[in-house]
Amino acid sequence: MTPNMRRxxxxxxxxxxxxxxxxxxxxxxxxxxxxxxxQTGDITGSTPTELTLEIGATKKQLPVNxxxxxxxxxxxxxxxxxxxxxxxxxxxxxxxxLAKVPQGDLKRPLLNQEVQFYQxxxxxxxxxxxxxSIQDAGKRMLAFEKSNPTSFHYxxxxxxxxxxxxxxxxxxxAEAYYTKIASAPWPEYKLKAxxxxxxxxxxxxxxxxxxxxxxxxxxxxLQGSQVSAQKIAAKLGKAxxxxxxxxxxxxxxxxxxxxxxxxxxxxxxxxxxxxxxGASLQAAGQVKPAIVAYLHVDLLYPRFPAIHAExxxxxxxLFTTDNKTQRAAQARSTLKQKYPQSSWANR
Length: 347
Hints:
- By secondary structure, the chain is of the alpha+beta class.
- It is built from 15 helices and five strands.
- It has helices at about 5-25, 75-85, 90-100, 110-130, 135-145, 155-170, 170-180, 185-205, 205-220, 225-245, 250-260, 265-285, 285-300, 305-320, 325-340, and strands spanning about 30-35, 40-45, 50-55, 60-65, 65-70.
- Helix 2 (about 75-85) packs parallel to helix 4, helix 4 (about 110-130) runs antiparallel to helix 5 (about 135-145) and helix 5 (about 135-145) packs antiparallel against helix 6 (about 155-170).
- The radius of gyration is 25 Å and the shape is globular.
C-alpha cells in the first residue's frame, strides 16, 4: 500500500469515528406513531399541530394527531413512569413518580415543558377525581397553557382546562377552551370540540344549542375509533340535554341504546351511561329506578373517582327523598371519606 493510500485510509477512518461520535452526542428521542411505527431522532420543536423531528440532515413534521407516545433521550425515570401511569389512569402513582424528577436539572426546554405538562395534567385528573383542589389544578394548567402556546400538548391542555372549568361551574369559559380544539385541522378534533362544547352548553341550560352540537357529531360519516368515541359522548350528552328539556323518556331511551351496545370491558363508558340514566330518571321523578341506575356505578364501577363521586352524591339525595336515612348517611359518609375535595362532597 502506498503512503498516499495509507493516508487516505487514515483520514476515512478518522472521519468515520468523528461521525459516530457526533451521532452519539445527538439526542435520540423516540416517537411512536398510532400506526405502531417508531421514529427516532432529535425533537427540536413543536406547534399545537406538529412535532419537528430531525433525523440527520432531514427534518420531519409529524402531525400531533398521529402520535401515540413520545420519549426524550435521557429523560428522568420518574417522567417515563409517570407517563405510563397517566396512560393507565393511575394518577396518584403518576404524581409520586413526578415528585422524583429533579427540579431545575433538565437542560432541554422541551423536556422541561414535558414535565410541566404531566405535572399539570396529573393535578387536573386527581382534582377532578376529588383528590385535590380544582382551583389549584386549574391555576397550574392555565399557567402551562399560557406559557407554552406552541406545545404539542396544547389541545390536551385546553381540554383539561375545559374539564376543570366545568367542574367549577364556569361553563362559558369552559366552552371557549373546548372551542379552541376546533381550530385543529383534523375532522376528528372538530367533532371532539363539538361534543365537549355541547357539554358546556348543557351546563348553561342552553339545551337546544347543545342538542344541535351533539347532532352535528352524530351526523358525521367519518369512521374510526376516535370518531366512535365522540359519537358515544355526543349521544350521552344529548340525553342530558333532552332530560333538561323535560324529555326524560327520550333521554333514557338514548342512554339504553348506549348501554346495550357497550362491550363488557367498557367499564368507564358504562359508568358514565348509568349516571346519565340516573339523572334522567331523577328528573322524571322516578326515584327508585334512579337509585338502581346510580347503584350500578357504586357497586360495579367505583374505580372511576369522578363518576363514582357523582353517583354517591345523587344516591345521598335520592335515599333521603326515599326516606332511607341510614343509606343516605352511608352514601354521604363514603363520598366525604373517599373524595373529600369533590364538589359533590361539599354540596
